Structures are given as structure tokens and as C-alpha cells.
Amino acid sequence: MQFQQLAYFVAVADTRHFTRAAEAVHVSQPSLSQQILALERELGASLFSRARGNITLTDAGEALLPLARRILADADTARHEVLELAQLRRGRVRLGATPSLCTGLLPDVLRAFHDRHPGIQLLIEEGGSHDLVRELARGALDLALVVLPLPSPSPALTTVELFQEDLVMVSSTDSPAPRSPVRIADLEGQPMVMFRHGYDLRDLTLGACRAAGFEPYLSVEGGEMDAVLGFVRAGLGVGLVPTTVAARTGQDLRVTPLARPGLRRTVALAHRSDVAPPRAARVLQDVLLASARRAVTRSGLRPAGAEG
């Protein structure tokens, strides 16, 4: 049974005339008649009574008509749904990102994407790069913003470097002003607010302190990005955050650059290599790449692969 045969059947049922039905569906009358006969043979029953040129539905035709109308309507709905998705009027994108990128980079990116494609649902998952790589691998995410190098590199992932970003120190404006720029060694013995386990920034900061020869004093640890910034505002210690986050902290936090060579991270966009992202995800990827280029130009970020 073919959609075309059902469409011809409904046309004859509506017009009660084979020639007019053929004109309505834009085929020749012999072709339409042949397809109706083929449908009747497949169903094993006559659908029309053709006595003396008067076309009427048989009992089998009466039973099939509402079903045929529903099948054709569902097929039309399916075509419409796919067209809507193809034209980016509907759909969804599942995007993972580290919490600092959700705070610093994503708000402007997602606003730009939503303004252009308001019908696309955006599902955001925050997590460390290790967790996001795992979610990508199992198909739970379409794209993920991660920090390189990945904790467990996977040949099944494709990564595109977006930019390099310096870390800066944030402190309460109620505390004494630190030297500027501040050295990592200056943080020895100073209370620090530290992110929870699993944060890329935690590992980067602890590694830098240990490379400088000391174990940092953590006055508070275990927070997410917003909590860490709140604890710093309260004067519980200093924190190291990316420049894109520091740019959004407002006037109630003091931002101090780190002395050279400082600390830097590389932000990349990742997706599975074996499965092409949906079209909506590919469009979001283009928006992210364009936003990263603008951020490098306007926000002082470094282009991917920059040295020094």
C-alpha cells in the first residue's frame, strides 16, 4: 500500500468521478484507475461500486476512507515537522559546558542564537571536562565546550580550539589591595576559595601552586562558580578565575592580573567524530566560533595556538 494509492483513493471518494479525481491529483485517468485497481488487489476487496457510471463506496471503501485520510494527514504532518526542523524553526541542541564558560562566554552566545532561532530548544548541562567527554561519548550531548588538554583524550571526539584565556585573581574590595600583577608565589599562606573536585580550574590552580613549591591554604572549598565568587565577595579568601568570568563580576570584586608567565587555559568545542551533529547544533557551532573570534578581538583573549 502506497501513499500515492491512498491519495488517489481519497480523491475518487471525494469527487465520485475518476476523471475529475485524476485532474485533482494531476495524473492521467488511466494511471489513476490502474493504481486504484492495484490497491484493491492488494486489499482483496473492491473499494468502489461502478454501476452505470455511478461511483459509490463499497463497505470496504467506507471502512478505508477515514483510515486513509488519517494516514495521509499524519504523513503531511511528518513532512511539515521535518521541514520545520530543516529550516531551524523547531528542534533542540544539547550543549555541555564547564561552569566558568556557562558564566562567562555562553550568555551572549545563547542570546544571539536564540534571537535568530527562537524555536530551537537549548538544553545546557554544566560539568567538568571529564564528565562532558563521557556524556558526549554516550550520545547524551551534541556539543560540549571543554578545556584542553582533555583529562582522558578520546579518538572518537573531534575538538576545535576556540581561544586561550588567562586566569586572574579576584578579591574582595574590602580587603587590602594586592600587588599588581600578583605572582603565584604570593598566594602562599593566603586564604583561597577553591572550586569543588572535578573543576578544571581547581586542578589548574592547585598544580600551579605546587609547581611554585607550596600547598595552598584553602579557607573554603567545594563551591560552584557563583558560590566561589560569593565567598570571595564576603572576604573569605581570594580566587583564580578566567578573564571572561572576571569581566562579569561587577564593581564589588577587585580583579588583579597574574605576573608572567601567569596561568592560561585553552577552550575548545568538542563533538563526536562518528556522528554528525544535528543541523541546529551545527548552526550553534558556527555561532560559537564567530563569538570566539569576536571575543579574541574585543576581550583581549588569545587566539588558539598563541604563544607567550
Query: Helix-strand pattern, N to C?
Result: HHHEEHEHHEHEEEHEHEHEEHE
Mean pLDDT, nearest integer? 89
Number of strands: 12
Q: Catalogue the unreliable spans.
A: none
Helix content: 40-55%
> Radius of gyration in whole Å, from Cα?
31 Å
Classify the secondary structure makeup into a structural class. Answer: alpha/beta
Measured distance between first and last alpha carbons: 68 Å
What is the makeup of the main sheet?
8 strands, mixed
Number of helices: 11
Shape assignment: rod-shaped
Key descriptive features of the protein:
two-stranded antiparallel sheet, 308 residues, alpha/beta, 8-stranded mixed sheet, rod-shaped, 11 helices
